[in-house]
Amino acid sequence: MNMEVNIPDDCVGDIVSDMNKRRGKILGIDTAPNKHQIVKATVPSAEIPKYASELRSISKGRGFFTSKFSHYDEVPAKTQADLVGKYEALKAAGELTDRGSV
Fold first, then answer.
1. Residues with Cβ < 8 Å from 3, sequence gap 6 or more?
2. What's the whole-model pTM score?
3. Which residue from 9, 19, 52, 53 has the highest number of Cβ atoms inside 10 Å of its Cβ?
4. Where are the alpha helices (H) located in 3-76, listed in sequence order?
């Protein structure tokens, strides 16, 4: 996903760090009015669902973001292995439906 995060100047370091934890790639940082910055990044869609509450916490409610589909990309090998392991554990425990979903 392409993301633009509009945050106060004092939150930039925390947001960049958080994006890196989410496997995001920072594309740039632009200046916005009222002592705000816009952090532009690409982030895997799997890392976005709970981002609104995390951003609210990091920015003390002063930040907001937009996201838009960018492209599909291959899942990193380690993440893929983790997903397969979780799937196999659920399958072994009988917690999957006949369609393979939880």
1. 19, 24, 39, 40, 41, 42, 43, 48, 65, 66, 67, 68
2. 0.76
3. 19
4. 12-21, 51-59
CB 58 within 8 A of CB 14: yes
User: By the 8 A CB rule, do 88 and 95 touch?
Assistant: no
CB atoms under 10 Å from CB of 5, counted, come to 27
Q: How many CB atoms lie within 10 A of CB 10?
A: 12
Q: What is the pLDDT of residues 14-44, one digit of tens each?
A: 999 999 999 999 999 999 988 999 999 999 9
Give the SS3 label for residue 75.
coil
Q: How far is CA 68 from the centre of its chain?
A: 12
CA-angle at 22, arms to 84 and 63, nearest 5°: 145
